[in-house]
Amino acid sequence: MGINWFRYASPASFYPLAGKTIPWFVASAVLLAIGGLYWGFFETPNVLSDQKQYYRIIFVHVPAAWMSMWLYVVMAGWSLVGLVFNTRLSFMVAAATAPTGAIFTFLALWTGAFWGKTSWGTWWDWDPRMTSELILLFLYIGYMALQSAIDDVRRADRASAVLAMVGLFTIPLIYYSVNCPDPNQCASLHQRSSMKSIESNILWAMLTMTLAFWLYSFAVILKRVRNIILEREKYTEWVNELPEIRSQQVRS
């Protein structure tokens, strides 16, 4: 007998499921992050030695940049599902994704600035890749600001969902800022990105860190979704029957 996944579209059904999976995602993320950082910092000692040791920042910078784009697609995807099917949980997941996406975007820009200072001699240049990533950060901030600015939750969900959908143009813009069809037209300090050109040891370390960031995102997003559910459903009977809510009521 198959599992009816549609039942988890209900906040009441999704809340306990998310609570059970969060510890597994946290533990897996921590283990993979430790393994990925050790692999990257200690098992790739002489690769890219011409760039000295600062090249190791890529084990945080590149996965963070990948996650910043992937999470925006996730946020926009859930926003679209919410708009089409009018599902409350979809909007909640989208809202919970935005802060994590913004953090990874900021991390990508911050580590990129350190890379730029040591590699190119400048903290910031209005390079197409940097500029488009900065636009992505502003879109995340704009999404969260719009959510907070509108008191009516349903109107806020729909307005921010439309903004998320409009901002999707940034993702191909970031990719093609250094991967345009004609390399001569890519006026970028960044090199063209190609998985084939990366030394295998470095690639696997980066992919391990990417998976760690991915699992971390699941954990914090699910935790944030649970908090949003409690806030929006606080007057429902099922929330007031939760053990953690009942214990708080007893203490108060």
Largest sheet: none
The rounded Rg comes to 21 Å
Helix content: over 70%
Task: Please tell me the total number of domains.
Answer: 1
Number of strands: 0
* Through-space gap between termini: 44 Å
Commentary on this structure:
This protein is an all-alpha fold. It has one domain (21-251). Helices cover 72% and strands 0% of the residues. The chain is built from nine helices and no strands. The protein has helices at 11-42, 58-85, 88-119, 128-149, 153-166, 170-176, 200-232, 237-240, 243-251. The longest helix has 33 residues, at 200-232. It is globular. The N and C termini lie far apart (44 Å). 29% of the residues are buried. The model has no long low-confidence stretch (mean pLDDT 86).
In short:
This protein has 252 residues and is mainly alpha-helical.
Task: Please specify the SSE layout and strand pairing.
Elements: H1 11-42, H2 58-85, H3 88-119, H4 128-149, H5 153-166, H6 170-176, H7 200-232, H8 237-240, H9 243-251
Considering the chains and any ligands shown, give keywords for the structure.
mainly alpha; 9 helices; about 250 residues
